[in-house]
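Researcher: Structure prediction, please.
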Amino acid sequence: MNQEYISLQGRPSYHVIKVGNIMIHILLVDDEVSFLHVVQDSMAYNEDFIFELVLSADEALEKLNQSRYDVIVSDYSMPDMNGIALLTHIRRSSSIPFILFTGIGGEHVIIEAINQGVDFYLKKGDAPNIMFAELAHMIRQAADKNNAEERIRENEQKYRELFVNSSIAIMIYNQDRILIDINPAALAMFGLPSAAEVKGTPLFRQYSISDENIADLHAGNPVRYSKLLNIDDIVPANSYHGTRLGLIYADISIIPHLTGDGTISEYYVQISDLTAQYRAE
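Model: Predicted structure follows.
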């Protein structure tokens, strides 16, 4: 095994590729150094693949602590820690795409791998040209899915930061028009100490929305209007009333969020307090 490791370290573990391509970083795990090289060499036409080759699950875990990868491709049969044990360990803290090589007739391995969260699996005994073509397709699918999920998480984080730090009062209602979130600016506007004071209150009852505006919202159209609001209509009578009472003159925007099939998943409400301007006029 030591001689094999020296051999592995002696040859490049990556392909030289064109600058500017979107690269897919792949951690390839197998205790057979010859198979690692066969995989790498057979997939050299994929210029956007960067392979890191390791000979054990323990070494793979060390690499994962040191570097970022887009996909893991691992053999099942390895000493000390097999591929499913590696997958189980990784799934405790990461959803990184995982592709498992299994042996012929390893149906029980496949079932266990699926239960542990494997993304794809391949049988080692298949014809090499078919096997490596399938592997390349799986790697691309897994990397694309992972990148899309990461973009969603990044966008959600950015949205959350905007929501929390906005100077505009913002409230979010679910598809049943029940309040599920409220930002600090809205809490300050209504003199509330926490979101718990108003979560669960209905949208249409709070803002005295006209029948015409309700019809527009049901059709998925945003509405905007200005009116005097009574704080007691916003904060239910049986809850904490907050530190602010009376009337405010508000500019109100209600924006339905539509899913891909056109159904409404949420309503975003933005309120600007124009009371000072209203009184000045």
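Model: The longest helix spans residues 128-165.
Researcher: Thanks, that helps.
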